[in-house]
Amino acid sequence: MKKILYSALLLIALASVACKEAIDLNLEDEKYSRLVVEGNVTDQYTRHTVLLTSTSPYDQNVACPKASGATVSLNDGTSTWALTETEPGVYMTDSMAGEIGKTYTLSIQYKGESFSAISVMKPSMTIDSLTANYLFTADNMLHYEVQISGQDNPIEEEYFLGIPSLNGEKFNEIYFWCLYSDQMTNGTYLKNYSLGVYELFPGLILKIEWQSISKEYFDFIYQLMMNSYQDPMFSGPPANVKGNISNGALGYFSASAVTSVEKIIP
Amino acid sequence: MKTKLFLLIGLFLMSGLIQAGDTENPVKKYSISGYIKDKNTGEMLIGGGVYVPEIKSGVAANVYGFYSLSLPEGDYNFVYSYVGYASVEKKIHLDKNMQLDMELQLQEKLMNEVVISENKSDENVKKTEMSSVALNVDAIRSIPALLGETDLIKAIQLLPGVQTAGEGSSGFNVRGGSTDQNLVLLDEAAVYNASHLMGFFSVFNPDAIKDVKLYKGDIPSEYGGRLASLLDIRMKDGNKKEYKASGGIGTISSRLTFEGPIIRDKSSFVVSARRTYADVFLKFANDTNLRKNRLYFYDLNLKFNYDIDRKNRIFISSYLGKDYFRFGDAFRFAWGNNTETVRWNHVFNDKLFSNFTFVFSNYSYLLGSGQSAFKFDWDSYLRDVGVKADFTWYLNTKNTLRYGLTSTYHRFFPGEFVSNSGTEVKLTLPYSNALEHAVFIGNEQTLLNPLTVNYGIRFSAFQNVGKGTSYNYNDKFESIDSTTYKSGEVYNTYTGLEPRASASYILGETSSLKASYSRTRQYIQLASNSTVGSPIDIWYPASPNVKPQISDQVAVGYFRNFKKNVIETSVEMYYKNMKNQIDFKDFANLILNPKLEGELRFGKAWSYGAELLIRKASGKLNGWVGYTISRSERQFDDINNGDVYLSNYDKTHNVSVVANYKISKRVEASLCWVYITGSPITLPTGRFEFAGIVMPVYTERNGARMPDYHRLDLGVTLKPSEKNTHRWKGEWTFSVYNAYNRKNAYSIFFEADKADPYLMKSFKLSMFPIIPAITYNFKF
């Protein structure tokens, strides 16, 4: 919403005059490298993944180094699962399903330091249907508005993350993700609730994975989106995105319950 | 303790005042009072001077052109003067109370050639007033402007001690204050958003304005409510002698002003309108959809005045301005100010002048969309209704007292958002109410001839009034519960004293030393997360969670005039300490957030600097050179790890050169050059990857700077021939903004390369390239 508004405002202001050009900056480098965690456990029976990398100087234009050789484990209060490194920086559980209501603790030992994160698996939400309505064509791309319908739980302050996939291929980049909070809609039936406009094509299978998340993860994703969408006029001062990993590491570990809904694009 | 000290000093000075009265009692005294006006238009001349050489003293007319002097019986020369006007000397035998209105004539109308030297007042040296600059609208008009649109605020931004909030912005920062710490008054009514078109233009139509004065410190005790500055803008009263029309056709807007007497010499009106055809901007856009849309702003100023009799005058002024954008059905956005002022001047006797004011001010905006996917409506407003009574008591030649009281009712409506695209989403933020009161008294007193002091005190109070909901927060700024208050219930009150004092010590005929101290308190502020401000920013009041902002400023200055007061120079140094300052937490959500107060963080700020001004207000070559060296810093426990960081508007060096040269009777050339140290910015030091994107890691807020900013603007004005005896007089102005096409950085940002997402490229966005413009102005 805000994004649309701001883009519109910016467009008006800059339509005719502004000019963008490359500039050379002498960026200072961060003194220390920090561990970065991207981890997820769900109520689906599958192998859950934790990615470990470390930070690098901002102007070093290559992938961040993988953090290999860490000891990673997951605990739900009763059982503990050890994760195995399947390829450098990628740590996986054996196939298992998380349980709603349980508190998951991720523990990492890396280069002599310990890191941990805690996340509670919140209840999922039932999605009845998915619709995709053709809006317009621009630059030879067909634009569709994607909407969902479903009953919001009576529980207050619930947060959900929608991750789309096309023909089984997940959109991994957060630009395509959508966030939903029930602050204004608690307990109501969401009828054709808009998730945004996507570039789609008839015949493709669109799937939305609807994950229950914590407020903190909601804020984290929101902040990632804000940071990747810095606009000069309306964004506040740039700031670090705050995750839930202890001991100065960056990133997030989230536990979520998942419901999915599918639709063939008309 | 402090309060006691102020009271003691006050008592001491007051006793001096009474004594002064006593010792002069044996000699019978008479007063001479009246109005100082323009001979051709009947407009009152704000700050016009009356000087009496026999007593080496005088008085300046107040904002309504009224003056009064009390002297023992005798023969005197009264010298009436005003900048740019020919002085008039009048010999008078004063043996009774007299009323004398003086009409002065514009110097250029008087003589048929360009004036090279003139009798100029030395008021800037003699008066205690410091840290203030008055700009006359004609001087502002001669500065080359963006797209030829003469702009008061852009002219103000060229003064030392004032920083621009961002290129093309109508926001300004005074001596390390934020943009919402400026009180902008249009005929006594607060203007809450002075920007048109994202700030590229300000809302003040120069054709409707008579006088502009900026106080950067040493704000008179009559005014308060903002920490940093007062920008006092007075509208024209309207020509009392004859009907006149003037206007202009510019590159983006057209203006038309009509003024004249309703009853000659007794009553007059002025109507002034301006509207852009900025929609033409869109014609340049590449997108065909864009071209069909609406984009304009307009301003409408109305003023009426009526001299009922010598003792009573009435003024009614009104301003209405609006910006409107519309993209077909997809999006509409409008915002604007409306101010109304009704004033009644009453002269109780020759020594006591009073003014009663009623003000109304409203700022509102609305956004909406009719497109099915994002159908929504959203509106918000802030409304003020206020009354004020102020008195000027010309006690004797040594003391002029100003006192009065004021009360304002504020209503804040932060917003309502209704969206209906399938599921209705509605969010209404309840409105809140507040009362702001103040009583004030000030005296300008000549102690011993070289030393003049001006001291005053303002007692202000702020009350939150129900119906309202106040959230309570824990020390992590999370709301724990809320308290609801009944309609009319006063649930929170803040009060405080604001002492103000200044002194000038005259060192010789042409130079003086001045010093001032002022405390200011601010109870309402703007929630804005951007440096330049946006129309949807909302004002919010002090409350149980938000303490009033307090500023203490001391300043010292040396003032010296050269060449018979034609060249004025001054150096001022200031130090300002600000308490209860407000900043916002990282990723703060400031719009449509009922728990806005939870996003606020509190800390302190301070600023210091030195300002140099060399100004030549008249002559063939006129203009000024300003230089500011300054620093402004902040410290918040919850921001930047508690470490001190630079304010967004900390710009170490700021140079401005404004010059206007009369090449011949018909041709004038003007120049404006600015050089400003780059604004502080926060740049990333490290990166991490998450969900397929590269994210920056920052270490220090505002730890780097943008490239320095500099820009040259040029203008040429062709005036009509003097042989032209037609009533219609037209003139052409050609201007070039950013003449050497410097690509100043407006912002710096990073984007991932499309082919290689790991390659982060840095870019600068620059706003205005070289922009030529033509304006045609006319009068008839």
Describe this structure in words.
With 266 residues, chain A is mainly beta. Chain A contains two helices and 18 strands. Chain A has an eight-stranded mixed β-sheet, with no helix packed on it. With 780 residues, chain B is mainly beta. Chain B contains six helices and 51 strands. In chain B, strand 2 and strand 3 form a beta hairpin. The longest helix of chain B has 23 residues, at 2-24. At the A-B interface, helix 1, strand 1, strand 4, strand 11 and strand 15 of A face strand 27, strand 44, strand 45, strand 49 and strand 50 of B.
Explain briefly what this protein structure is.
The complex is a heterodimer of chains A (266) and B (780). With 266 residues, chain A is mainly β.
Can you give keywords for this protein?
heterodimer, A: 266 residues, mainly beta, 8-stranded mixed β-sheet, 5-stranded antiparallel β-sheet, 2 helices, 47% strand, disordered N terminus, B: 780 residues, 22-stranded antiparallel β-barrel, 5-stranded mixed β-sheet, 51 strands, 58% strand, globular
Give a count of the beta strands of chain B, DSSP E runs of length 2 or more. Answer: 51
Strand-residue proportion of chain A: over 45%
Contiguous uncertain segments of 5+ residues of chain A: 1-7
Secondary structural class of chain A = mainly beta
Shape of chain B: globular
| Helical coverage of chain B, percent range | under 10%
Radius of gyration of chain A: 20 Å
Residues in helices of chain A, as a percent range: 10-25%
Number of strands of chain A: 18
How large, in whole angstroms, is the Cα Rg of chain B?
Answer: 27 Å
- Main interface by residue count: A-B, 85 and 78 residues
Global mean pLDDT of chain B: 88
In terms of quaternary structure, the protein is heterodimer
Q: Which sequence of SSEs, written as H and E, runs from N to C of chain A? A: HEEEEEEEEEEEEEEEEHEE
Strand order of the largest sheet of chain A: 9-8-5-6-7-3-2-17
Q: Which stretches of chain B of 5+ consecutive residues score pLDDT under 50?
A: 11-16, 18-24, 110-119
Mean of pLDDT of chain A: 88
- The N- and C-terminal alpha carbons of chain A lie at a distance of 26 Å
**First and last CA, distance of chain B:** 63 Å
Morphology of chain A: globular
